[in-house]
Amino acid sequence: MRTLWLLLLFIYEAQSHAVSTPNFVLLMADDLGIGDPGCYGNKTLRTPNIDRLARGGVKLTQHLAASPLCTPSRAAFMTGRYPIRSGMASRSQVGVFVFSASSGGLPHSEITFAKLLKNQGYATALIGKWHLGTSCHNRTDLCHHPLSHGFDYFHGLPMTNLRDCKPGEGSVFTRALRLLVFVPLQVIAITLLTLAVLMCLGFVQVPPCVFFCLFFLAALVLGALLCFLHYFRPLNCFLMRNRDITQQPMSYDNLTQRLTADAAQFIQRLGPKGACIDLKEGDDEEEEDKKQKQKQKEKKKQKEKKQQKQKWKQKQKKQQKLKKQQKQKQK
Ligand SMILES: *[C@@H]1O[C@H](CO)[C@@H](O)[C@H](O)[C@H]1NC(C)=O
Ligand SMILES: *[C@@H]1O[C@H](CO)[C@@H](O)[C@H](O)[C@H]1NC(C)=O
Ligand SMILES: *[C@@H]1O[C@H](CO)[C@@H](O)[C@H](O)[C@H]1NC(C)=O
């Protein structure tokens, strides 16, 4: 499944074997609707692993998200409180963190379930996307980082998965850029043209410094646009392991596989008591495909065998008939 690379994965590993502290894994997928997994009735998308989990457990059919956006709904998911209570429900149009330089984030006064579990002796990890803020004052303090919210280990995207992070996939900022760049440029161009025409016709006397200022302004706006396009990706699309940046800008090549492998490693590092869940939806599908193809091949072979048998029987019948006819003729 394409959406699955955005898994937010929390793994909890009990340090003791007490019955009251079971291990658990929580998966959170962005942009996955209830109509998408096979266990909820989808016939076109195959999700064998999710379906298997549903078959072996409990399938809930009613859920309300606290918000339709990642930042506020993740804040609610993490704390069990409405996002407006933690200040994570923005009134602005954007509503989510878009720049890693934003100084906000999930407040420390909030109690995430990771904090509660850590206090109970659990080892906790978050693998995947965080998107609840990173730093307060400068980019090194990482005060809103997952490690500051009860997680022992973090590997993934501190920000989010924007189109702008993939080269050639377009931008989510086209409307903002139109308003902040293209409209001002058009205004400057029209002003310049009008002034030039009026001056040529002799209606007004425009000092050259006005033209210079307008050109300078246009160059400034264009320069800002180029800087934005050039620096957005490296500054906002990066991968971190704990407090270190491990890939900047991040590459989407095998990202799901890399994060899945790391999640499995986290479980293995903690020993055999860890619950092991196969997240490799893709691989499983391939295996299923192979199995189905093999089944189809076997069916074909069986059909061919049947046909051959039938042909052989028909031949034998014909031969018997011929023999009978010959015998009759002889008589
Ligand atoms: C299955 O998922 C696809 C992709 O989201 C969707 O287009 C389709 O309508 C879904 N089918 C059902 C029966 O919900
Ligand atoms: C970043 O902020 C923290 C906390 O305010 C401070 O201790 C640290 O010195 C700052 N680092 C830099 C490089 O300014
Ligand atoms: C991605 O994974 C596939 C299969 O494991 C591998 O063949 C390919 O080289 C990997 N690509 C990158 C860029 O790592």
TrEMBL record:
Biased composition, Basic residues: where in the chain?
292-331
What Gene3D superfamilies does the record point to? Alkaline Phosphatase, subunit A, Helix hairpin bin
Note down the stretches annotated as region Disordered. Answer: 281-331
Which positions are tagged coiled coil?
Answer: none
What this protein needs as a cofactor is: Ca(2+)
In the UniProt record, the signal sequence range is 1-18
State if Metal-binding is listed as a keyword.
yes
**Keyword entries, A-Z:** Calcium, Hydrolase, Membrane, Metal-binding, Signal, Transmembrane, Transmembrane helix
Gene Ontology molecular function, alphabetical:
arylsulfatase activity; metal ion binding
Q: Where are the transmembrane segments?
A: 179-204, 211-232
Q: Where does the Sulfatase N-terminal domain lie?
A: 22-158
Q: Name one Pfam family in it.
A: Sulfatase
**Would you identify the family this protein belongs to, as annotated?**
Belongs to the sulfatase family.
What this protein is called in its record is Sulfatase N-terminal domain-containing protein
Q: Which organism is it from?
A: Eschrichtius robustus
Q: What is the lineage of its organism?
A: Eukaryota, Metazoa, Chordata, Craniata, Vertebrata
